[in-house]
Amino acid sequence: MSLSPPPPSAIAKRLQALAPHVGSTPLLRLERLEPRPGVALYAKAEWQQLGGSIKSRAAFSILSAAANQLGGRRVLDATSGNTGIAYATFCAAAGIPLTLCMPENASPERKRILEWLGAELVFTSPFEATEGAQDAAQELVRKHPGRYAYLDQYSNDANWKAHVQTTAPEVWDQTQGRISHFIAGLGTTGTFTGTTRGLKSRNADVQCIALQPETALHGLEGWKHLETARVPEIFDAGLADATHTVSTEDAYAMMRRAAREEGLLLSPSAAANLAGAVALASELESGVVVTVFADDASKYHDTLSRLA
Fold first, then answer.
1. Could you give the CA distance from residue 135 to residue 287 in angstroms, rounded to a whole number?
2. C-alpha distances in angstroms, 8 versus 4, 63, 145, 182?
3. Environment class of residue 143 by beta-carbon count within 10 Å: exposed (0-12), middle (13-18) or buried (19+)?
4. How far apart are CA 249 and CA 258, in angstroms?
5. Which of 196, 175, 174 lies closest to 184 in space, CA to CA?
6. Which is deepest, 4, 38, 54, 60, by most CB within 10 Å?
7. How confident is the model at residue 81 (pLDDT cuts 50, 70, 90)?
C-alpha cells in the first residue's frame, strides 16, 4: 500500500535530521601504494556515510534544495546506481516517493538494493548508458509533469555545491592545508567540479586533475569519456589543471593491489581513482595527493567473482 507523501515541512525536517550522517568521512593514508618517499597519498573513504557512497553528498544536497517544491510529486532522476541508492535511502527515510531511470546493465546488487529501498525502477538500454536513462526521465516528466519532479543531477547546481560545502573543507582540514594535488574521475562531474572550486578558493595553487576512462568503451560504471559522451551541464572544463586517463584494466588491477597491500575492498571506480592517483604521484618529487573512493566493493560481488 502506497502512502501519501508528507507535507513539505515534514519532509524538510526529516531530511535535516539525516544531515549529521552525510559526509564527514575519514581520509585514509595509503603508504604501501606510495610510489615515491616524498609523496603522500590519501583517499576519502566515502562509503562510510549514510547511503554508502560519495553520491550521498550530492543526493542529499539536491533533495534538500528541492524539498519545498515537490508538491506531492514523485522524485525522478536518471542514475547509474550510486546516486539512485542515495536518493532511495533519503527518500525512504523522509517518506518521498521515488522513480529512477537506469541502464539495464547496472550491477544486480544495485538493483536489489534499490528495490529493497522501495524505489520504482525504469530500465533503459544498456547501449545508451546514462544518456539513455536521462532521455527516459525527460520523456516521463514531459508526459506527466504533475506526477514527477525531475531533479536532474547532471544539471543541478546543488550537486557540485555539496562538494564545495563538505568535501573540499573536509579534505583541507584533514590534510592541514597541505594538499598539493586533487584527482578524481568524471561522471556527473559534481565531485570534481565542487571539490576543485572549494580547494582553489583556499589555495589557488592546488593542482586539480580530472580523470576519465581511456576509451569510449570502458567498464567504469557511471564514468564518462567526455569526448564521446553527453557532457553534464554542471561541468566547467576550465577548472581542470590537467586531464588524465585510466584504463578499465588498470582499475581492475588496482582493485587487487588495494585488497592485498592495503586491505581495502574497492569498487572499480574507486580503484580507477586510486590508479590515477598512484600514476600522478609517480610523476612528482614531493606533494600530498588526494583522491576519493566513491564506494567499496559491496555492490560489485559479480565483478569480484569475475576477477577471482
1. 42
2. 12, 11, 18, 38
3. exposed
4. 14
5. 196
6. 54
7. confident
**Measured distance CA(215)–CA(111) in Å, rounded:** 26
User: What does the block give as the cell for 54?
Assistant: 560519495
Instruction: For each of the domains in the chain, give its residue range(s) and CATH number, in order of start.
Output: 11-50+162-307 (3.40.50.1100), 55-150 (3.40.50.1100)
Cα angle 267-157-218, degrees, rounded to a multiple of 5:
30
pLDDT for residue 1 is more than 50: no
Cα–Cα distance measured from residue 52 to residue 31, given in angstroms and rounded to the nearest whole number: 25
Cell numbers 581520509 correspond to what residue? 27
Q: Could you give the 3-state DSSP secondary structure of residue 68?
A: helix
Q: What is the pLDDT of residues 166-216, one digit of tens each?
A: 999 999 999 999 999 999 999 999 999 999 999 999 999 999 999 999 888
